[in-house]
Amino acid sequence: MKPNAFPKSKRVVSGRAFTLVLRKGGCAADDCLVVFAFPRREGDDRSDQPRRLGVTIPKKTGNAVVRNRWKRWIRESFRTQQADFPTGYDFVVRPKKGATGNWTSIRRSLPKLARKAARRLESKRG
Q1: Per-residue pLDDT of the chain (126 residues; tens, 9 = 90+)
Q2: b or e along 31-63 (b: 16 or more beta carbons within 10 Å of the residue's beta carbon)?
Q3: pTM of structure
Q4: DSSP assignment, residue 89?
Q5: 3-state class of 99 per DSSP?
Q6: Contact 51, 85 (CB under 8 A)
Q7: Distance CA 93, CA 87 (A)
Q8: C-alpha–C-alpha distance, residues 1 and 117, integer Å
Q9: Distances (CA, A) of 84 to 24, 25, 44, 59, 114
Q10: Distance between the two ends of the chain, CA-based, in angstroms?
Q11: Is-contact 70 107, C-beta < 8 A?
Q12: What is the CATH number of domain 8-125?
């Protein structure tokens, strides 16, 4: 498998996992994105666990073309910058309400917000 591939094993796909990350995870936001982070396992060494990404785009964001564009940009940003994300976390990303996204702003803010959300969760827990 290529190092920057985005197989199903690197995606948050189940509704239960989405709910867990959104309800109990740490959150970070800027003017473009909102990122939630939650560790894959409690207390274990997470360095060997892959990072996983889930994307949720509300219908209020726009029509199907706009929503799919957001999804492509977020997935591609994650795929190409996986090394910049903390390991062993599930991330759920959504656009900020009323945001008009573009590729450069998403690419710049996604890894930064992922690290910030993971730090917030760790500081809240310990």
Answers
A1: 666 677 888 899 999 999 999 999 999 999 999 999 999 875 455 556 789 999 999 999 999 999 999 999 999 999 999 999 999 999 999 999 988 889 999 999 999 999 999 999 888 776
A2: ebbbbbbbbeeeeeebeeeebbbbbbbeeebee
A3: 0.89
A4: E
A5: coil
A6: yes
A7: 16
A8: 28
A9: 23, 19, 21, 29, 9
A10: 36
A11: no
A12: 3.30.230.10
Measured CA to CA, the distance from residue 84 to residue 71 in angstroms comes to 19
Tokens of 16: 């239960």
Q: What would the two tokens of residue 29 be? A: 């936001």
The answer to whether 117 and 26 are in contact (CB under 8 A) is yes
